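Renewal narrative, Specific Aim 1. Our central claim is that a sequence can be written position by position from structural information alone. The example that follows is taken directly from our test logs and has not been curated for this report. It begins with the structure tokens describing the chain, in the order in which they were read.
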């Protein structure tokens, strides 16, 4: 792979030293963020996190490529712990966003947590490792215009941040629901509706579930399969029963 203005062969010791330095800076300036469980996170802490990572790990590469990267937290991001929202053409649309899930951050209590092939001790460190994953998406888009979880992505994730995987095992709402009820995306479920029982397939899990119920009057298809139409229902998790 061609050369980059930052190291892609950091040792574990160097990575931990740099990550701990960033963590200590952020904790010292934000009492809500340093509490366990985390109570709040200030806007300036998010911007500082980006700035410190760009300086300390990336030698300013992101600042040089993007006009701006907004770092936000969202309580509505439930399906993953973080998300990189990227311009399709960074040259023409130089503004990007890294959106972090506050739901996941505020619910983490006692570690250790397993994520991206690493084991970390605290919720705050887990938050940083999720952020590192999103930074790798930003780097890929900056240099190649596209991003995914390919071997190229892992080259950056491993070489810069020591990640060994691109999956994580954090307790998102969807995962907790699956653990408690056995219901996951794709499960067949039933639920009461206007005095009847409807059967359908779960297509999304968050604070509520989206269930697709087969009906000739439906306006939706599942996985683009045009042989069956569905009506979409938003159902509280407590009303769902798994059909075995
Ligand atoms: Zn990703």
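The sequence written for that structure reads:
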């Amino acid at each position: 792979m061609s050369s980059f203005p930052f190291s892609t062969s950091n040792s574990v010791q160097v990575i931990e030293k740099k990550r701990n330095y960033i963590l200590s800076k952020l904790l010292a300036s934000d009492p809500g963020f340093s509490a366990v469980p985390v109570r709040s996170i200030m806007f300036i802490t998010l911007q500082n996190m980006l700035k410190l990572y760009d300086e300390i790990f990336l030698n300013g590469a992101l600042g040089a490529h993007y006009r701006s990267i907004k770092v936000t937290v969202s309580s509505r991001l439930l399906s993953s712990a973080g998300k990189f929202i990227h311009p399709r053409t960074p040259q023409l649309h130089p503004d990007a966003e890294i959106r972090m899930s506050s739901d996941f951050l505020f619910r983490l209590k006692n570690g250790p947590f397993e994520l991206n092939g690493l084991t970390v001790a605290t919720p705050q460190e887990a938050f940083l490792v999720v952020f590192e994953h999103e930074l790798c998406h930003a780097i890929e888009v900056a240099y190649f215009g596209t991003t995914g979880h390919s071997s190229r992505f892992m080259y950056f994730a491993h070489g810069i941040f020591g990640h060994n995987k691109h999956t994580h095992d954090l307790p998102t709402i969807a995962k907790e629901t699956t653990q408690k009820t056995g219901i996951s995306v794709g499960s067949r479920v039933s639920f009461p509706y206007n005095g009847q029982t409807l059967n359908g397939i779960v297509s999304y899990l968050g604070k509520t579930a989206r269930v697709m119920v087969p009906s000739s009057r439906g306006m939706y298809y599942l996985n683009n399969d045009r042989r069956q139409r569905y009506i979409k229902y938003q159902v509280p998790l407590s009303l769902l029963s798994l059909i075995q």
